[in-house]
Design goal:
The complex is a heterodimer of chains A (116) and B (113).
Chain A: E1 4-7, E2 10-13, E3 18-25, E4 31-37, E5 44-50, E6 53-57, E7 64-70, E8 73-79, E9 87-94, E10 106-107, E11 111-115
Parallel strand pairs in A: 2-11
Antiparallel strand pairs in A: 1-3, 3-8, 4-5, 4-9, 5-6, 7-8, 9-10, 9-11
Chain B: E1 3-6, E2 11-14, E3 19-21, E4 23-26, E5 32-38, E6 44-50, E7 56-59, E8 62-65, E9 75-77, E10 86-93, E11 102-103, E12 107-112
Parallel strand pairs in B: 2-12
Antiparallel strand pairs in B: 1-4, 3-9, 5-6, 5-10, 7-8, 8-9, 10-11, 10-12
The chains are: A mainly beta (116), B mainly beta (113).
């Protein structure tokens, strides 16, 4: 099992569809993250969860809805997206938010989303 | 606020050439600095880091020195290989923790034979 696994790797959806991205980590970490990676832009932090509780929401539109049922799983529910939401969505995990956290994030391979 | 500026790519080099990828930052206090690398089709992974001024991070032949006077953290490698072809991201954390990482835009490196 790789450390952080994301599914699906590729997703094409229409603006009226509802879909979900899934992330699973096998590292025993407590914190999980969603990032958006767009061409020629810095990685954008979307959400942070620590011990299943959301600790950060960086002004993300409500058409993106995260869910963290436990420390190992993270979902991003997608609804009524726009073409400009097309991007690579990266999930990451870390040992914690502070204390033992050394600043190292462990990333999945990403889900490439295309909104038509 | 905090920000990271990287040189625009792509950077194209021949194998065994010397590599420099520039990175400068803006932050208050004494942030920790990082370089992450993203190989084709993969997620980002930590390459090296430095937590205080004049520290040198190193890994896999890559080095970067934390220069507070110039607010820089340039990535260098003496002799690149084709397998180094990837996108390199500079990042900072004001608290040294992953939850507050600010990334740059990334610099694509292409190494040819």
């Amino acid at each position: 099992e790789t450390g952080v696994t994301q599914t699906p790797r590729h997703l094409v959806m229409g603006m009226t569809n509802k879909k979900s991205l899934k992330c699973e980590q096998h590292l025993g970490h407590n914190a999980m993250y969603w990032y958006k990676q767009s061409a020629k832009k810095p990685l954008e932090l979307m959400f942070v969860y620590n011990f299943k509780e959301q600790t950060e929401n960086n002004s993300v539109p409500s058409r993106f809805s995260p869910e963290c049922p436990n420390s190992s799983h993270l979902f991003l529910h997608l609804h009524t997206l726009q073409p400009e939401d097309s991007a690579l969505y990266l999930c990451a995990s870390s040992a914690g938010l502070a204390g033992t956290n050394t600043g190292e994030l462990f990333f999945g391979e990403g889900s490439r989303l295309t909104v038509l | 606020g905090n920000s990271v500026t990287q040189m625009e790519g792509p950077v194209t080099l021949s194998e065994e050439a010397f590599l420099t990828i520039n990175c400068t930052y803006t932050a208050t206090g004494y942030p920790s600095l990082f370089w992450y690398v993203q190989y084709p089709g993969e997620g980002l992974q930590l390459l090296l880091k430095a937590t205080k001024a004049d520290d040198k991070g190193s890994n896999k032949g890559f080095e970067a020195t934390y220069r507070k006077e110039t607010t820089s953290f340039h990535l260098e490698k003496g002799s690149v290989q084709v397998s180094d072809s990837a996108v390199y991201f500079c990042a900072l954390s004001p608290t040294g923790t992953a939850s507050k990482l600010t990334f740059g835009t990334g610099t694509r490196l292409q190494v040819t034979l």
